[in-house]
Hints:
Layout: E1 7-11, H1 15-26, E2 30-34, E3 47-50, H2 52-61, E4 73-81, E5 88-102, H3 103-112, E6 119-120, E7 125-130, E8 136-140, E9 143-147, E10 149-152, H4 159-164, E11 171-183, H5 191-199, E12 200-206, E13 209-217, E14 224-232, H6 246-256, H7 259-267, E15 272-282, E16 287-288, E17 291-293, E18 299-300, H8 308-325, H9 329-360, H10 370-381, H11 390-394
Parallel strand pairs: 1-2, 1-10, 2-6, 4-12, 10-17
Antiparallel strand pairs: 3-5, 4-5, 7-8, 8-9, 11-14, 11-15, 12-13, 13-14, 15-18, 16-17
Helix pairs in contact: 1-3, 1-8, 6-7, 8-9, 9-10
Amino acid sequence: MAVTGLRIGVVGGSIAGCAMAIAGARAGADVTVHERSDGALQDRGFGIVIPPPLHRELVTAGYLGADMPTTPVATRVWLARAPGRRSARELARQQAPVAPCNWGLLWRALHSNIGGGAYHRGRPVDSVGRTSSGGALIRTADGEREYDIVVGADGHRSVTRELIAPGVRPAPAGYLVWRGTIPADALRDHPEQLDLLETAWVTLGFPGGHGVFYLIPGAEPGSRLLAYAIYASAPAPAGSDGQVSAGYVRHIAEEHFPVEWADVVARGEHTSQALHPVADFVVPRAAEPPFLLAGDAASVTRPHTASGAVKALQDALCLERSLRASSSAAGALRRYADERSAEGARLVALGRRLGRALVEHTPDWPAMGPAEVDALSRAALDGADSYLYGSVQRE
Length: 395
């Protein structure tokens, strides 16, 4: 018999927090979200991709509305700059369907399905703790509130994780990723590249790294953005101190990209841009009753896996299933931990292999063809599943 009538407190109101709140409510719990920011989060973040089957499941289950825009494509195209030239050379094509979306629009869609009374802005959580009766406490400046379950969905600096997995910290990968979004209008003088992006997402290899490019919906209805992530093993520019370095992105593009792609990235008017050191970690167990970790609080994978938001959404679906299949809160959390702990560890290991293959020990990209790209993909996957390499795994 499913456990009902639980009180669930969620620490963090980003994508993971909103999705976990929906999961708890759908399973019959009384949910309260504590979000530190006092403003909307919809303008934060960049482009993300999710597997089309997961998107359909979330719409069917009521987590997302069918009207949330995505820009689905079915093909992955691998490119590099042709040897001795500045034009692009296509290396391979793989069937790899994805549903790109806008981080802000995804957050907005999830937030709208929580219910206004359950989401409290401007409520930073000072700490979490246990009650004498085995419950959980959330402490804020307003006092303490008791819950049957506390969900830590508060990112890689999670206060909840400190209670059940103290000392777990992100481990630096030793390289960086530059993210950005550019209005799709920047491609109007590059019709060939725009036509390609209408049906595919692009991986562009260069010595010491690669870039990923895809179209996402913009914040305004009908608008679109070119989203990119550029990984480079080269050290950050002196004095950057983690700050955005638009000049360095231009340098990478002009030094290594085919001229058409360099022109877009180097000269396009960005709507957002950020520099992030790449890091990862995973906790031994994603739940210890009465506490549960979700999203980046439980594990951070290298972004090559495109699993940050995906894992958070899958965490939520798992929580709902676990609550419906368990007769106690502790039983539900044990079910959740059994499934999601293993998945977090699998994704971290996959991200490290992809990082070695695509950044730390890059191949001679221009010399590669379809067979070499498939071999590189299979070696990095090492039998693991990834929706980003669909046709490679099916052969």
